[in-house]
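Supplementary Methods. Inverse-folding protocol.

Structures were first reduced to a discrete structure-token string of length 255. This string, shown here, constituted the complete conditioning input.
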């Protein structure tokens, strides 16, 4: 199993700044931020499943465009996997005929370009031997993290989250954990904003990683443009013993 980073920035502002999306092999997306826009049409047409951590635009911005661009090229619907609460938000505020057409009814309700599938924390979805497990997260909207398990090794992606003891309890049960991708959206000078928006900053990240009882390679995602160097320096000062590295666009993980 290969996981390619299409986007991992907390904002936009140049070719190197794309918001969150990961491509598993050729057919599964984790989130659908602006990084998806760099895929060719042929690549977009091969995506069969999209797993959404939460409904915020930096994680869903390209979802409507994927369906609109390649829906008629495909011989089966695109399946969007998310929690019941997140699917309700997507239906009410995105695929609502006002913001964007409802592709779960196009070209017909009986044969749509897109279908929704409800996921629940702790309940694995298995696609051709690849296991994706929603894990707890705590954000300003309903949100999940994901464990991606090849059977040999696992990668955990925190999604957007503030402090969440339940996440670390779940992560500590993963015996084959190899990689941990965890958000850190703000520097410590904006800790109040991090707490208000239920994100992490370096001092909060230190408290979260103190709960980790597994060995894993740690990568930092969702850094805000304009604060990248400052935040990474603060992370090094706070949690340097974990040897965290900044996640990069087009980085490839093999599980």
């Amino acid at each position: 199993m290969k996981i390619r980073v299409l986007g991992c920035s907390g904002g936009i502002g140049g070719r190197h700044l794309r918001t969150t999306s990961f491509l598993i092999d050729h057919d599964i997306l984790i989130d659908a931020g602006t990084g998806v826009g760099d895929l060719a049409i042929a690549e977009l047409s091969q995506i069969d499943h999209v797993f959404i951590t939460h409904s915020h635009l930096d994680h869903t911005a390209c979802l409507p465009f994927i369906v609109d661009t390649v829906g008629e090229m495909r011989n089966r619907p695109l399946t969007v996997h998310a929690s019941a609460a997140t699917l309700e938000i997507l239906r009410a505020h995105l695929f609502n005929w006002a913001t964007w057409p409802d592709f779960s009814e196009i070209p017909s309700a009986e044969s749509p370009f897109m279908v929704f599938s409800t996921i629940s924390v702790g309940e694995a979805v298995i696609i051709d031997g690849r296991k994706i497990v929603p894990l707890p997260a705590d954000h300003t909207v309903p949100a999940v993290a994901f464990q991606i398990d090849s059977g040999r090794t696992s990668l955990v992606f925190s999604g957007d989250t503030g402090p969440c003891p339940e996440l670390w309890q779940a992560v500590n049960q993963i015996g084959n954990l190899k990689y941990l991708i965890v958000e850190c959206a703000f520097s410590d000078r904006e800790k109040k904003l991090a707490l208000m928006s239920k994100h992490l900053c370096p001092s909060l990240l230190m408290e979260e990683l103190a709960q980790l009882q597994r060995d894993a390679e740690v990568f930092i995602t969702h850094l805000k443009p304009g604060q990248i160097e400052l935040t990474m320096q603060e992370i090094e000062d706070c949690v340097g013993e974990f040897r965290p590295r900044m996640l990069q666009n087009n980085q490839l993980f093999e599980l």
